[in-house]
Amino acid sequence: MQCPNKSENSETIWFGPKDLNPISRGRTIYVTKNSHRFQVFGNFSVGEYKLRITDINISDIGLYKCTISVKKRTYQYEFDIKLQKPPTGLIIENIDKDSILNALEGNDLILECSVISGCPKESLVWVHEGIKLLESTSGIARYTISPSKLDHLSQYTCEAISPALTITLSKTVTIKVHYAPDLYIQYENYTQEEEERVLTCHADGVPQTYLFYEWEHKSDHGNHIRFLTGSEDGVLHLPTINIKEMRYQDNGYYKCIVTNGIADTTGNVNKSVEIPLNVKGKLLSSPVFVADNNKEIFGEYQKSVFMHVNVYSNPKYTIFDIVDHNGHYVSSGKHIKVIEGYTSTTDLFYGNIIQLKGYKLTVNIEKLTDEYLQDYTFRVKNEFGNSQHSITVRLASTPDIPLNVTATHINNGVQVEWVRNFNGGNEQFFFIEYCDGIDWKSVQSFNSTTNDIISWTIPNLQSNIIYMFRMFSRNRIGESNRTEEIAVRIGSESNILFYSVMVGSATVTFILMMTVGAFIFRRLRLRRAKKNTSAQQDLSQTERSEERPYGPYDEINDDEIIENAVYNPDQETDRDSEYEQPVNLSTIKSESESSISSSKKESSEEDIDENHTFAEDVCLNSYEDLTEEREPYSPYTTFIH
User: Fold this and answer.
1) Domain residues for 453?
2) Domain membership flag for residue 321
């Protein structure tokens, strides 16, 4: 111990703990039982007096003072000697018997170390891979980390640093990070000749207890194809297909789904990985023009028209050309552009329609004229084979009339159903027209179904009114013909039944009356004929036949039936000069019936109102009763209730 101040004219006095008497004055040491362990030394000539204690023991622990007078002022300094005590009981919180601390990936983890302090006060330090992370003198050291899978089994050490220690005091903890598994699939591409095809899903996570779900087979565009069951340790054997040419359907992406109960950093418990599997074979590798390619393209005159074809080729085709019907090559020029690009195509894999990566070949005819209305053949070839597809370019037209139109009363509305017809080469839209006896109204059907049979409901119609319905189709070129009109009466079920019974009863009564009248008329004519015969015995049988226009079984002449066939203006249909329109079965039937039926007068749509009693049909039926000859009746509009 050394007093800070020095004085050549004054001696330094040292006092020990618990002693009132000084230990020394200047160079003089006062004799005590411990004086042999004290020593005063220094450069006395300049007033330097240091105190040394040797073989220190516990009785020497305490407060020491030195006093010195400098220029008649006295200075005193104190020195506290304490007994060194090494720190003990260093521990790391929350570790198990193997010094392992469990953690979850992405969750904060606190490393806490504490010690029973010694003398002097020690320092606690956290060290990782030789780098000091944190130092604390409070007896507790806390350090926070956010572990990742890279920190799994990493070690952190807590050290106590003290001069009282002769051996380092420290402990090390191993961080066991629990994390969702990393996955990869071990596989190789196959040919369709190979029988054994295996995919192995490897998982690497903590804990190493895994649950493997079903594998999923998907197309290149992510369309689901099928689920496959693998083994409990992640091995999948692809099912064997006896028809080798069908094994190309094993192509696509295979997805392995695994969990070990630990969520990843995004919160997902199930982890997945997928790989593309390529099964090579002649059928798959030859170019294939897919089924959704058109065989006909319709264009408008003097307007641009595009021919598109989709082809699947693995590997990609090396040769591609187009020829017209004369065998001349078609290439990009002033009015034609040939374009190659990528697209997606469709195919049937294990009963599911899926999308495949393919190529799109396009020919753009900028102005459609007669010279371009012909057949074109697209040809592609790769190292495995070749394929071709033909397209015919035709001139577009107005759409054809909708087919098989029906109208059914539903609640307070009418459901109209029809079958779509040829669209003329352009997108067509369907319109329903209906009339309440005064005005015609038009409604567009927005049904987006791709089925041929379409239906649309007209709601909120008035009760006890007969509505007329008809349809037509429209595209960008024009409209089709209107369909025949259909009458529907809107009313309650009881009203409909009553109406039907009344109409039916009136019709039957009228037919009976006409039949009886005809029978009486015939009897009168026979009697009159007998009287004429008795009055004119000299007339020959030929002369009598000439005077009588009809025989007893020939009241109506066949020639008159043919000449007086009913004409229905609605049966006329405009025909496109370019294309044959679809056959209207109802029109054919009406024309056929008209050729062998008869009526007493011609009628038109204006002659028939909603109260028309169809006298023509009644007369024809009466004729059947009288002559026992069956003649088909004229077509007429049927009421639907």
Assistant:
1) 403-491
2) yes
